[in-house]
Amino acid sequence: MKYVVVLGDGMADEPIEALGNKTPLAYANTPNMDRLSKLSEVGMVHTIPDGMKPGSDTANLSVMGYDPKVYYSGRSPLEALSIGVPMKDTDIALRCNIVTLSEEDVPFEDLTIIDHSSSEISTEDCAVLLEEVAKVLANETYQFYVGTSYRHCLIWDKGQVVELTPPHDVLGQTIGQYLPEDVVLREMMKKSYEILKNHPLNIERKKQGLNPANCCWFWGAGTKPLLSSFEEKTGKKGMMVSAVDLLKGIAVGASMGVAEVPGANGGLHTNYAGKVDAAVKALLDEEYDFAYIHVEAPDEMGHQGSVERKVQAIEYLDEKVIGPVVERLEAAGVDFRLLVLPDHPTPIRCRTHTADNVPYMLYDSTNLLSKDWDYTEEAGKASGNFEPVGHKLIDSFLQL
Is the sign of the CA dihedral 35, 41, 42, 47 positive or negative? Predict the structure, then answer.
């Protein structure tokens, strides 16, 4: 038996008037999910433990079977694992987004955060900008490391886990009240804005109609993570297929394989075919039992507040990932189980994560059901199937 999780990050949502009071998942044209849902178990799962923040970090740990209350030590340390940062036990890792702030002639604290991803800036461009920041701000205490796209890492030697605000939580708001209380971190953010706002690369981006990547935003602080081996825990040899360092870092910490897919960028137009190829190759040619295919695009479109693009991201997930994976596994004649779900909702209404339950669809090629439901939030709620402890869903999926 082969096992595949297809994780549409932030895919769940709320009914939207512009979509006829349907959610993007219910509105999207998803013939593959529609077909599979009639043969599958559909239900709801609570991925965010009560009292914890609804992040992709805690939620994906849950989906992979790791209780966040036991294993979560902060978001950025997981990403640091993926980048290959040699963290010491005394290090604190922080996510360093390169964001877009407004550029009015006002005090720094009165600027507005426009875009947490700087128009989904490329890794290559962002590396140039981060290098300029590091020339001025890096020292023995603070070191910068390049990640993917707008997502980078700051290591703080002998630092503290301080409370910091995710930039995607405060889009469109004045930044003053959300800046770090730590004086040094606050000043570094301010100086990064001064370094980057007139950088030639940003001047060119504005000419092209792109948002300038003009400020470092620190968040997600945490200590070196200690995850147990996924294979030892489940008896399954697992492969992670994702564009983002967070998921790769979870996989590194869990001693899983990590596929490197050229052109996978976490955006709407990522290399979907490459992701499918990597997962299928791992399962059929490399003796892996389990593949986790993570697609970031629905979450990014939710943060952007774009109904149209979020629907498109879900349709791409159906057309370019779920359909081809099922087709190729069926053609190979292998028995397989497929779990499709989001990690958390990212509603268009608020453009950030919520802790609401999310719908799942569990398909088993050896046990085809006969149902009349589709895979939607409404159907998941109506099914009566509910897993209140998110990290336990994988046990039933893997038949442990």
Answer: negative
Bridging pattern class, strands 91-101 and 113-115: antiparallel
Alpha carbon distance 60, 288 (integer Å) = 20
The encoded tokens of residue 71 equal 């294993």
Residues 6+ apart with CB under 8 A from 35: none
Residue 342, classed as helix, strand or coil, is coil
CA-to-CA distance for 81 and 226, rounded, in angstroms?
11
Burial 141-172 (b: 16+ CB within 10 A, else e): ebbbbbbbbbbbbbbbeebeeeebbbbbbbbe
Phi first, then psi: what are they for 382, rounded to 5°? -75, -20
2-71+227-397 adopts what CATH topology? Alkaline Phosphatase, subunit A (3.40.720)
Q: 28: which DSSP letter?
A: S
- pLDDT tens string 126-178: 999 999 999 999 999 999 999 989 999 999 999 999 999 999 999 999 999 99
Instruction: Tell me how far the alpha carbon of residue 102 is from its chain's centroid.
Output: 25
DSSP codes joined into one string, 110-166: G-BEEESSTTT--HHHHHHHHHHHHHHH--SSEEEEEEETTEEEEEEET--------
Q: What is the largest CA-CA distance in the chain?
A: 64
Can you give the pTM of this predicted structure? Answer: 0.84
Are 148 and 265 in contact by the 8 Å Cβ rule? The answer is yes
- In the chain, CATH 3.40.720.10 sits at 2-71+227-397
